[in-house]
Each structure stands twice: as structure tokens, then as C-alpha cells.
Amino acid sequence: MSQNASQLIEQAQAYVASVQHLVDQSLSFVKHHCLNEAGRLSGTRLDEYQLVSYELAYCAAELSGAKFTNDYARQHRAKSGDTDVLYMEERFALHFCAEAISNCRNRLSMRPAEFGLQRAQLSDVMDNEAMLQFCDQYLGAASLSELGQLMLEQNGRTGDYQLDEDKEIMRESFQRFAADVVAPLAEHIHREDLMVPKEILEPLTEMGCFGLSIPERFGGLQPDDHEDNMGMIVVTEELSRGSLAAAGSLITRPEILSKALLAGGTDAQKEYWLPKLASADPFCAVAITEPDYGSDVAGMKLKAEKVEGGWILNGAKTWCTFGGKAGVLLTLARTDPDPSLGHKGLSMFLVEKPSFDGHDFRFEQENGGVMSGKAIPTIGYRGMHSFDVFFDNIFVPDSHLLGGEAGLGKGFYYTMAGFSGGRIQTAARANGLMQAAYDKAIAYSKERKVFGQAVGNYQLTLVKLARMATLMTASRQFTYAVGRLMDEGKGQMEASLVKLFACKTSEWLTREAMQIHGGMGYAEETAVSRFWIDARVLSIFEGAEETLALKVIARSLIENAA
User: Domain holding 314: CATH number?
Assistant: First the structure.
């Protein structure tokens, strides 16, 4: 059976590669029709292919996920040795490949001409008898039910994480903290819309959580000679199992600010700020988004005017998460008033303020400048509060211009450096939410009886549990694989792909966990209702789904197409 299992994985990968070839053909087709006279992609022409581009981005994400999930299965087989068992890890890979192939088939066959494909081409690849039999087997009710039953017997355990020993120790430590400290507080924080309490913040500070992206020479936990995205991913995932907003997102802002500082800060700025950020003294927030400009960073309008000894800031920012509690805001402002400069006229400032715990704040400077903020009421993602922040003649000294005089006009690039890990971290948050929801679904399906037997005994529930476990495992291993690539200085495109996939998947999976709970799933007192409503934000922040798919993923794939 071991040889057959290995052959099955190779066969699945061959099917994935053949579908990828169709996607590549379609990308080339779009590129051919969107080049301008100078041989460059025309944004206007590309907008005429938005639907096609969006669906190609999802095809690319799922096929990439299938490849990494197959790699995961191969690695487990190599480590476990040859037996007569088809391992759980291999079953996940085979089921996920079948689902990815089927999803791509549905997208491409719905309107093949718009993808530059002919039905005969699709038929040659996707009506292959062996591929159809493969998909029929691993998407069939019998196979999925069997896997779902295995998940119940395993009490939700979903296979080997395949982490190094140090990362496994880290995972276990933060899993215990999330279960023992975060989870018991999470519902109260969510339902009362409270600020993250010191019972969570202080131990996480002592555990070095806020220094995960800061090199050891500055008091952090990251090695001095390379990034440690895997450490950040593992910690984020486990904390998100306890609560997305009250724990899982706490390390995002110090990561963004520390990466921006490392990319462009002066030596003096690094020496001063990085040790303080590592010890959460002060906490920090990011003020990038503006009321009329979200992902369109180049259009930012917050004005910074040069005065003696510093700058005066006027304007507004929105969705400044943790902006009340934070003692410093990483703030993007327009230092050159010429709008034609776009992103080249932007610079980055570190704006200090007192820390406030409430839903609004007001800070007055001695020179008369005023900064005020008001928390935006949200349906979920509660605990850190996201603020509208208003700058009225706020003075910022020259020492707080990121990069000093050499940093003028480079704010956009520092923003990109700061957010480089944001997408992979958001995928990790999605994985943590999925695991939390899945754990609840497994437990409830065993306990709840309907029509004389447990919910988990029914075929439909077993199929749900199998698909949930498969997609969650694929998302986790996709995330881990990309994290390892990023630690090698690669994987930026893959980080966008896994963010797109994981966030959409978490929304579906938490919804299914809620559905398994029936009426109780809709009750505020049940944790799965919080998981579902928190998961909804993931496809919006760190790059809205549509912008990520069209402007980042599809555009890059099309530009690089043959």
C-alpha cells in the first residue's frame, strides 16, 4: 500500500500540474489582450478582465495550496517510513487536490472563451477518465464520510504539524496560554466590547511576544542574522485560537513598526525604538488608512508641513486598531503637496501620545495641537478597538521622521516593508480561528442528539467534518510552507496567495461549525458565533480580497505570464 500511496500523491500532483497549465494559458491570453503600445500592461484594459482575473487568482491560490499540501504528504511519508497504511496526511492531500481540481474546472468551464480557452482544450485535460475517477473517489460521499468518522475517532486531531522542535515547544507554550488565560476571558471581552486586559497583555510581554520580529541585539527574540516568520506564524495561530482580537492580532502592529524601522530607520531610531517595542513600552498602532483611501495608499492626504524643528500634521486616519491604547502611532503623511507625485510624496512618522483605555481619547499638546480618536463600533474583532483618529496641528519633531531627512518621500516603501509579513500573519490568524471552530464542531457533533442519535453520526455531518479538516490542514501547511520560504527571503507572491485562500476558507469553515451547532450556533453565548463573525474581517483587512486578487496576485501573474 505504501508504494501505491506514494504513487497516488504523484498522480494527484500530475493532475494539478495539468490544470495549472490551463491557468497559465489563460494568464497569457489576458496578458496578450492587455498590453499597450509600449508593451506594458494597461490598467484600463486589465479592468475589462476583472472577473477573469479574480477567478484566475483563486485558481492559482488553490493549485499552489495543493502543491504544498502534496509536499507535506511526501515529507510525512518519508519521515514515517513504509507501512500498509494510507496516512491521514496523505488522505488530506488527495482530498484537497480533488477539491482544487474540481473548483478550477468549475471556474474555467463556466465561461471558457473569456479565459481564452476552447471547450475542446478543457475536455482534453479535465475530461480525462483517470482524473475524473480520481475526483469522483476523493469527493465522493463514502470517502468523505470515512474521513469524517476518522476525525471523530481522533477527536479532531488533524495529523502531524511537521514543526521543528523549537517551534513545537513554542506552539505548545502559547497554546496553553491561549487555553488557560485568553479563552476564559474572550467571550466577556467580545460581548462587552472591552479593551484587552492586563491579564493577557502583561504575561504576553513577559513571554517576549512583542519582540518576535525584533532582532536579539535590540532585545527581541528574532535571530540577528535572519527573519523568523515561522515563529511569528506559530504564535499568531495559537493565540488566535483563544481570541482573534484579544490575543491573535496583538503582535501585528509591533511587527509592522519594527520591520519599517529595520528597513529605513536611522541607527539612532533603531537603538531607541526597537528595545521599547520589544518590551511593549509603549504599545504601538499603525495609522495608514484614510476615510477615502484604503488600499490606495498613493492617494493619502494627511498633510505634514515643515516647521522649525519638525513637522505639523493635519488630517484624519481611520481603522487605526489599538490606536487608543498605543503610545506611538506609525503614521503615513504627505510631505510633498504635489498630488502628481503620488506615493513618492509620502513619508512616515512616529507620533507619540499618551495611552488611553476607553472608546475615545483626546490629547492636547503644549503648542495647542490636538489629537482625538473615537472607536468605530464593529460587529466583531472586538478587544483592541479600531479608531477614527484626527490630527489637528499635531507637532512631530524631526527625530521622529522615519529615516530622518533621507526618509523623505520613502514612506510608501517603508509601509510595504512593514506590511511584508502582514499577509502571512493574517493566514495564521485564519488558521487559528479555524482550529478553534473545528474543535467546537467536533465536540458538539458528539454531544448533541437529534432524532435519536448524535449529530456526528449523520453522513452530512461527517462530510462537513472531513472537508473542514481537509481545508484547514491544507491552509495550515500552505501557510507553514510559505513562512519557510519567507525565512529564506522568498515567497512574497505565495504569501498573497495563502492569505487569499486562508481567509476565504476560514469564513466558510467557521460558518459550517456554527451550522453544526444549529440554533445554539446563533446564540451569542456560544463561542462559534464569535469565531464566525471574527472570521468575516479577515478577507477585508491586510488587503481587501478583491484588491489582493486583482491588483496584487492577478496583475503579477499576468505580468510574468509567457
Answer: 2.40.110.10
